[in-house]
Amino acid sequence: MLSTKVIDALNQQIRYEAESSQIYLAMASWAEFQGLEGVATFMYAQSDEERMHMLKLIKYVNERGGHAIVSELNAPPVEFGSFKDMFEQLLKHELFVSQSINELVHITLEERDYATHNFLQWYVAEQIEEEATARTILDKINLIGDDKGGLYLFDNDVKLLTSVKPPQV
Ligand code: OFO
């Protein structure tokens, strides 16, 4: 049985994952509008992944006898400046999500909820991977600078980074 404190914290995380999905969807649309197909493909896939993170949490809460709440979301930005700005925002957002997952893990220990603690380890590992991917992309952007040809290659490169992981809901 989940405690009220754990249910509330998991529901907050459900909201963050849903907001992440919306933010990345807005980034995908913006990149597509700018003509960078590779970046758009990557961001659409990221958006789908975040939705999967959200669904995994919803199913877990309901399976354990809690009620997963689908709440109102903050609207994502419309414009993202440059591609460098956009990926910097992505990294910043992932760092925020990692912090939130850490806080959640901490609450499960306080509540002696070892099952949820165990369930959340998947998210801890996922965050390490997502932060690393964002840093790899930012390194590439810093290497190409403002070079147009470089941007074309970068776009193709980012497409290759698009993970094709099967959904694990
Ligand atoms: Fe990238 O955030 Fe989900 O977990």
- Highest-level CATH class: Mainly Alpha
Structural class: mainly alpha
CATH architecture level-2 label? Up-down Bundle
CATH superfamily: Ferritin, core subunit, four-helix bundle
Indicate how many domains the architecture comprises: 1
Oligomerization state: single chain
CATH topology: Ferritin
- Envelope shape: elongated
Quickly count the helices. Answer: 5
Biggest pleated sheet: none
Q: Report the uncertain regions.
A: none
Ions, cofactors and other ligands present here are: hydroxy diiron-OXO moiety
Helical content stands at: over 70%
Distance between the termini: 21 Å
Order of helices and strands: HHHHH
Strand content: under 5%
Radius of gyration: 17 Å
* Average pLDDT score: 94
DSSP E strands, number: 0
What report would you give on this structure?
With 169 residues, the protein is mainly α. The chain has a single domain (4-164), classed as Ferritin. The chain has helices at residues 4-33, 37-63, 83-110, 114-144, 148-161. Helix 1 (4-33) packs antiparallel against helix 2, helix 1 (4-33) packs antiparallel against helix 3 (83-110) and helix 2 packs parallel to helix 5. The longest helix has 31 residues, at 114-144. The two termini are 21 Å apart. The mean pLDDT is 94. It binds hydroxy diiron-OXO moiety. Hydroxy diiron-OXO moiety is lined by residues 17, 20, 50, 53, 94, 97, 123, 126-127, 130.
